[in-house]
Amino acid sequence: MGDVLRGERTWNGLRIEVVDVVRNGWPLLKAHNQYNDPPLPGKRMLLITLEVQKIETADNKPVSIDESDFKVVGERQEVYNTYSEETRCGVVPDALDGVVIAGRPIRGDICVQVPEQERDFVLIYDSGDSKQPAVYIPLPEGREIGE
Hints:
mainly beta, Immunoglobulin-like, four-stranded antiparallel beta sheet, three-stranded antiparallel beta sheet, 5% helix
């Protein structure tokens, strides 16, 4: 697993830091957009805040990044993405989307629907470049809103 939490970087020079994990982000998503649908029966919305930095590299090329570059997998070994009908959350507040350049980190949220009782989540960064390996980041258990 790529240990990008302790200063390591991804193959394209990114450092991805998990800033916050909210176990049930539905109240925040509902407050952000009244037209968001509630989680499907038996599911909850896992809201993850990330900060992404470009670490100086030889080429120093900017990196485009958005919420679709990330997936989550839990103890059931099922993959949850940000865009499928069964796992997406709707309009996400401060959705992660932008271009990362050296010295200018970006911060944003990603959200996936997961089964209510599932735990032990891992965030997967996979830009879709089949020549490069995915990066796995263990997620903390997270907090409830108001904690």
